[in-house]
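User: tokens in, sequence out, please.
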């Protein structure tokens, strides 16, 4: 009697194993590679000069390149919040660049790509810069990630000068910063003390990410790899130092491209390269006043911390064998806030119960004729300033003050150049023929101005606008956390 029971149980286990294995294969893996401050023109497939990026280029050649892809905001914390939640950052109270003393954090009630996929059986991992809260419980493990290895905020938030020396001048604003902590899970495993340590981050992150791929080859996974580079201070490992013809910036570009290649190789070795969607993009435009330590916008206006095209239009390529047609270019509007609903659709995960702003751009990825899921985009910056609105090819810029990179010459070799406060009047640009935003055509198109103002008022009613005093009815609160008062001299230096 026992033998038939054992036989039946054995058959059931085999059937279940085959069923689960089949389901796992049906669920694609997703890898999101996010660069820091990489400009629209930085990859070689765009207009990068003096260095090569064959692995980034290969994703573009094997998949789809987006020419009108937008970061949620032109600064790191806000843009990363938009990526992970599918919301305009100001909807969920996220803004600026959070550091060790920031009192706010991403509200754990907000669902992320990781939390949605985890509910659907995915293994989830975040490697690199977080930026959405400086200490536990506001690190990635509280937002759907099973594993985390990285730094909690930007790599320039540390008490070290550009030459890698500890700052001893108490008048220097960086003096009070703690050493840059490197976390694994919720525990600090080391501190980034020197520029040499910074130079090892790309290698370390890549090794951790590749191991995660190897360890999870038999089950669906989501990997979010957020590199520290090419955010100032830039650094690379000795293996890439002096290898490009574009100085240190070119060396760093070639190392992060090597990282992309290692990820693709790990997928191939794990046998899951044909069932993995790879997304490669940047959190915002380049920090142009750092000159030869910054990238380029490919001719777009201004850069990081501005809502002009150079600040928010970023490089984006995606590869998904058998689904995204090889060598396609998408000129339609798409945004980082669209990644969550798109990934949820692809992975058959439920959308968040709370309202999001992203739209499903899967029809664009599949290159379906006539697909145009996003025809408008709101350019918010700072806590809640609606600085511009886009509809199709038209962009209406509202009066606001911004920091321009075009008044003073940039810095060099890590020295930060000056920016100038400039007042921008209302202006209308046709981005189809003037992506550099050089010619104001509002006088010729009063009807377009009227339409875009009406569209902007709809956003103001929902999300508010500090420039006009609109409060908005659809905004939600971030988490309020205590400032992280850390004495860096007690941090292990």
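Assistant: Sequence out:
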């Amino acid at each position: 009697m026992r033998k038939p029971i054992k036989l039946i149980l054995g058959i059931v286990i085999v059937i279940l194993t085959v069923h689960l294995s089949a389901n796992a294969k049906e669920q694609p893996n997703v890898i999101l590679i996010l660069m820091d401050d990489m400009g629209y023109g930085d990859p070689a497939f765009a207009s990068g000069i003096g260095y090569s990026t064959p692995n980034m280029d290969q994703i573009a050649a094997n998949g789809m390149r987006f020419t009108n892809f937008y970061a949620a905001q032109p600064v790191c914390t806000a843009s990363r919040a938009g990526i992970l939640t599918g919301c305009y950052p100001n909807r969920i109270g996220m803004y600026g660049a959070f550091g060790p003393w920031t009192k706010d954090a991403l509200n754990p009630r907000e669902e992320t790509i990781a939390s949605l996929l985890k509910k659907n059986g995915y293994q989830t991992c975040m490697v690199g810069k977080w930026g959405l809260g400086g200490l536990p419980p506001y690190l990635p493990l509280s937002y759907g990630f099973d594993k985390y290895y990285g730094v909690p905020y930007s790599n320039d938030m540390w008490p070290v000068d550009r030459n890698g020396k500890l700052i001893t001048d108490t008048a220097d604003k960086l003096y009070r910063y703690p050493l840059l902590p490197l976390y694994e899970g919720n525990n600090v495993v080391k501190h980034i003390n020197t520029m040499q340590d910074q130079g090892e981050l790309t290698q370390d992150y890549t090794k951790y990410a590749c191991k995660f791929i190897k360890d999870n080859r038999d089950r669906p996974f989501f990997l979010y790899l957020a590199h520290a580079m090419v955010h100032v201070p830039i650094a690379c490992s000795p293996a890439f130092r002096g290898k490009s013809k574009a100085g240190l910036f070119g060396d760093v570009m070639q190392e992060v491209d090597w990282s992309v290649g290692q990820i693709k190789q790990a997928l191939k070795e794990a046998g899951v390269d044909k069932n993995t969607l790879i997304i490669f993009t940047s959190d915002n435009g380049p920090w142009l006043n750092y000159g030869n330590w910054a990238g380029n916008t490919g001719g777009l206006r201004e850069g990081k911390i501005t809502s002009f095209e150079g600040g928010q239009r970023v490089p984006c390529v995606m590869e998904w064998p058998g689904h995204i047609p090889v060598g396609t270019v998408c000129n339609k509007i798409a945004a980082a806030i669209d990644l969550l609903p798109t990934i949820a659709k692809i992975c058959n995960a439920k959308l968040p119960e709370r309202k999001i702003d992203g739209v499903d751009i899967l029809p664009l990825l599949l290159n379906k004729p006539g697909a145009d899921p996003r025809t408008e985009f709101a350019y918010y910056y700072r806590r809640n300033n609606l600085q511009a609105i886009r509809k199709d090819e038209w962009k209406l810029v509202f009066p606001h003050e911004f920091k321009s990179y075009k008044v003073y010459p940039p810095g060099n070799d890590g020295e930060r150049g000056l920016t100038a406060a400039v007042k921008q009047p209302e202006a209308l640009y046709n981005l189809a023929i003037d992506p550099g935003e050089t010619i104001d055509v509002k006088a010729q198109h009063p009807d377009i101005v009227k339409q875009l103002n009406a569209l902007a008022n709809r956003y103001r009613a929902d999300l508010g606008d500090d420039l006009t005093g609109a409060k908005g009815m659809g905004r939600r609160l971030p988490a309020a956390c205590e400032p992280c008062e850390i004495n860096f001299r007690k941090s292990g230096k």
